[in-house]
Amino acid sequence: MDVSRPQRTPAGDLPQAEGVAPRQLRRATVAHPLVISHRTNMGTMPENTLVGIDAALADGVDGVEIDVRATRDGRVVLLHDATLERTTGDARVLVDVTADELATVRTRPIHGIGPQPVPTLAETLDHIGSRAILVIEVKQRGIHEAVAAEVRAADAAEWCWIWAFDPEVAIACRGALPEVPVGLNLQRGSLERYGYAGEATALAVRHGLSALSMSHDLADEATVRAIHRRGLAAYTWTVDEPADLARVRDAGVDAICSNFPPRVRANLGLSDGR
């Protein structure tokens, strides 16, 4: 996968998401990369939970990343895996579970935090309420319209991003929510796994996406510069170690997603890391 040698395209020809605040696309209004909490501070909190969101906000993050899938009856909820097993101990696949059934399920105790409900996207949008960017990673095909409906119902388009690994999902979300910036997640071999060949930047520009969000091992200065030349933002994840934080910061990325946001803020000189 080559994201470091883009073909040149006139800047005026680059598609851009409409109606999006500048801070959501590039670093135009801040002097440092945006700090994004990965899976609601999963390094110290239960992932994809409202208590995790509260912890991230208390840490002073610019945004909180969550993962979403849909229940059997189409309710969009926060869950990373296809099954409930890892986070809740319930062996069922989410698509076999109704929203009412899921309402009785609780997460496993972790990091000293007791069992938590599995939130819906609607509850999450209401809870965060524009206090930070909500980065919605869509993990499942065919739910883009449901995600779009929830974002619009909450009047949340101005403070949401969409991310997806699957190009089909990213493109569908771009069509369903043209007013929200959509980023394509990348790691080595990820495009090929979904049946796409060629260059990630060209794919993103062709379909009007706003960003490439890459595994931190891909985030070097040449790659970031190439992404920026195509009018895209460059984000990176999941960055937890000091050496990696320094490297991606120096590469010029626009946002850093981490399990431990205080570490990122300390590295950027925004806090003491506690």
Descriptive notes:
This protein is α/β, with parallel strands linked by helices. It has a single domain, classed as Alpha-Beta Barrel (TIM Barrel). The chain is 31% helix and 16% strand. It has 12 helices and 9 strands. An 8-stranded parallel barrel has the order 1-2-4-5-6-7-8-9, surrounded by 8 helices. Strand 2 and strand 3 (76-78) form a beta hairpin. Helix 6 (144-153) packs parallel to helix 7 (167-176). The N and C termini lie far apart (37 Å). Mean pLDDT is 91; it is low at 1-28.
User: Can you count the helices?
Assistant: 12
Q: Based on the structure given, which CATH architecture is correct?
A: Alpha-Beta Barrel
> What is the CATH topology assignment?
TIM Barrel
Shape: globular
Show the helix and strand layout.
Elements: H1 22-25, E1 34-37, H2 50-58, E2 63-70, E3 76-78, H3 85-88, H4 99-102, H5 121-128, E4 133-138, H6 144-153, E5 160-164, H7 167-176, E6 182-186, H8 190-193, H9 200-206, E7 211-215, H10 221-229, E8 233-237, H11 242-251, E9 255-258, H12 261-267
Parallel strand pairs: 1-2, 1-9, 2-4, 4-5, 5-6, 6-7, 7-8, 8-9
Antiparallel strand pairs: 2-3
Can you give keywords for this protein?
8-stranded parallel beta barrel; 31% helix; globular; alpha/beta; TIM Barrel; 274 residues
Short description:
With 274 residues, this protein is of the alpha/beta class.
